[in-house]
Structures are given as structure tokens and as C-alpha cells.
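1st attempt posting a full record on here, be nice pls
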Amino acid sequence: MKILYAIQGTGNGHLARATEIVPILQKMGETDVLVSGIQGDIKLPFQIDYQLYGMSFIFGKNGGVSLLKTVIKLRPFRFLIDLIRLPIKKYDLILCDFEPVTAWACKIRGVECLGVSHQNAVLHPNAPEPAAKDWLGEFILNHYAPTNPQYGFHFKSLDEFNFTPVVRPSVRKAIIKNKGHYTVYLPAYSDEEIIEILSPFKAMSWEVFSKHSHQVYRVDNIHIRPVSLDQFTISFTNCMGILCNAGFETPAEAIFMGKKLCVVPMKNQYEQACNAAFLQSMGITVVNDLKSNSGKISAWLNQADALHINFPDETQAVFEKIITRAQLAESKT
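the predicted structure (as C-alpha cells):
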């Protein structure tokens, strides 16, 4: 069986999850990997067969996605050319983690494309919703990378098609420690803003992973370093708590490890607003405006307890189930 696994490369969460999923798929069949997007920082430990420009959401430096930069960076003709050239009919099975080139290539040509992403679960009727509706955000989630059938991952299993999070082996097998520091990953904020916000908390040791710096430097008790999956994992598995955006993979892994967690949903990112609503329903601290919520951060730092859920190691079983269903459906047509 020849498999194509297409990954969204806008952020690092999809790429990090792929480090667990791709080796599993490689055991099931000859697997090619496609990555599109220009915002990822992680170097994957396996061959990438298609590296495409894609359609990325560009992070700003003030807490959210920059809509202007996102529009400026769009390359519609390049997207169309990649869509046309992608040889999807050479594959027996196509799996898509919210990757738009592959999804639209399949939709236009009438080829089945199985969606396997967190985004597929975000709008599930059993998932908590944010207080404010965002019709544009919902439209993007529904149409950015259209797939059918769809399988999702969320902070809790929602039904037989939506599963608990994929936890990387490097986290699942790690010896979890508490060395007293706090890990920070807020890619939509500049280093200067993060330093300004964290500086008042001088009794704490902060390890900040920056999307905007290529050098390691220190400002008092705040240690800034570039994004590195290996270094981040070391800091993360040894931290007291983590301050991060309201993505999916990092909060899920924090909960798995029982780390104190505070999330800051990105502005202009409806998926993160939905994630924040779900996490808040689980008792996680949510800070909607980082600049004006130092009191909330202080209260979080003084918390003694953290949510701990031992998410089961079922990634291989989930993908075996998905592929078996696809094969059975194909045999009936």
C-alpha cells in the first residue's frame, strides 16, 4: 500500500505530532510525506518528499495572526500550480492533517482524502464553544482543507471518530521532573513584549522559546533561545509549568505530564478561542490579554495543583482502525 501523509506546516504542533504518526504509517505501507507552509521551525527526522509553499497564517508580534502579512504572503498561482502538479492518483491512501494543497487537489479530482487532524474535532457539537461566535473562523475551519471522511483529536474523546491527543514518544517516555523553571512558548509575541510581561516576576526562572530570535541570550531571570524541538522537550519535561498559546499539542502534553498550564489564545485565531474554551472548562487558566492580566498570571504561578490526565497510548491502534475502515469502504465500491 502506498500512502501519502500531508502535514500543515504553518505552526509547529502539526509537525511535532508527525514525529509520532509518520513512523507508525511507515510500518503500514510505503509512506510519502508532504509538508506545506512557511511558519514551521521544526526539522523532521525523516524524509520530506514534497515541500510546498502552501497557504500559511503569519504570526504577528502583538499576540495574534497578522491578517495583513497573511494576505501579503499568499501565493494563489503557486498554490494552484502545486495543486495541479501533485500526483495524488499514484497513492492508495491519502491522509491529511489540515493541509490545504492535498485536500483541495483531492476534492477537485474526486479522490478520497481522509482528514486526521485536531481541527476536525474543534467544531464538534460536544466540544465547549467560546462565548463569542466567529463566522469567518468557522468558515475557515470548515473549508481551508476539506476532507471526507474526517477523524479528529481533542482534549477528550468526543465519539468513535474523535480521539484523545497524540503524545510524542519523547514526552511519553520521558522521566518527568520539576527543576523549578517555567517554559514559555508564545510565537505571536515579540521577545520585547514577553520580557516586559515576565520581568515583574523576578523570583521565577523563565525559559522562553522565541520564534523571532536566532540567538541565545539572557535578560536577568529570563533566558531566550530559538525554537528547537529537542531543547524545548528538555525544558518542557523538566519545568514547573508552561505559559503558551492555546494550541493543541503543547497544552495536551502539559496535561499528560501534570504540568501547571496557562494558555493565551492568539488573536484572530478562532481555533485557539475554541481550544481555550475547552481548556477553561477543564479548569485550566486562560489569559485572553497578556498585557493586562499580570494579576491572573501571578495567581496561576501561586497555584499548587495541576491537571493530570494520562492519555492512553493508542496512536497506532487509531491509525490501524482508520486505515482498516478505508480499506473496507474501498472494497465495497
